[in-house]
Design brief:
With 179 residues, the chain is an all-alpha fold. The chain has one domain (2-176). Helices cover 53% and strands 2% of the residues. The protein has 6 helices and 2 strands. The chain has a two-stranded antiparallel ribbon. The termini are far apart. The relative contact order is 0.12.
Length: 179
């Protein structure tokens, strides 16, 4: 409780960097729940990643988290630095847990005939209902990865730019055969 109390900020979501651009796109909703599609895939927003970031920002606001504009200073007040540290620690723990939940779907014990902690026999692990559950774990990971990105002041463009830089490095390492 004390940790949450030190993190309260009442800035409006609409002041978030990139929020106005995301909401202005076709298919992107200001309400965090308007865009859920229960009828199956599509139609998709013009920029799905912008929609994901916009939703996650609004979702984070519901819990009074500090947001990126709070951290755009070179020196954070001690209470904000402590709050950001706690939030990064918390979201990193969530990412690790969701990754472990995904790993529970694959056989990681060489001596076991069952899949991870799910008690599903390896012969049945690739059934549609199990694949769906694995996909849900990946989506859970995306929620927390995007939350970490937002806490670090990233938007979908910065995420893409850094991803592209890292992809070039990884490709060069693989092509050189030295890594």
């Amino acid at each position: 409780m004390a940790k949450k109390d030190t993190c309260i900020r009442k800035d409006e979501l609409t002041q978030e960097p990139g929020y106005a651009q995301a909401v202005g796109q076709v298919g992107v909703s200001e309400d965090c729940c308007d865009y859920y599609n229960t009828d199956g895939p599509g139609p998709y927003p013009a920029n799905p990643l912008a929609q994901i970031f916009a939703h996650q920002r609004k979702f984070m606001r519901r819990f009074s988290h500090l947001m990126p504009q709070d951290f755009n200073r070179l020196v954070l007040p001690p209470e904000d630095a402590a709050c950001l540290t706690a939030q990064i620690d918390e979201v990193a723990t969530c990412i690790a847990q969701e990754a472990a939940e995904l790993r529970d779907w694959v056989p990681w014990k060489c001596w076991s005939q069952q899949v991870g902690g799910k008690h599903v026999h390896q012969a049945n692990m690739w059934r549609p209902e199990h694949i769906h559950e694995m996909r849900v774990e990946v989506v859970d990971l995306v929620h927390f990865v995007v939350q970490a990105a937002i806490l670090l002041g990233m938007d979908e463009h910065m995420l893409y730019d850094i991803w592209a830089q890292k992809a070039r490095i990884n490709n060069a390492r693989q092509e050189s055969g030295s890594y």
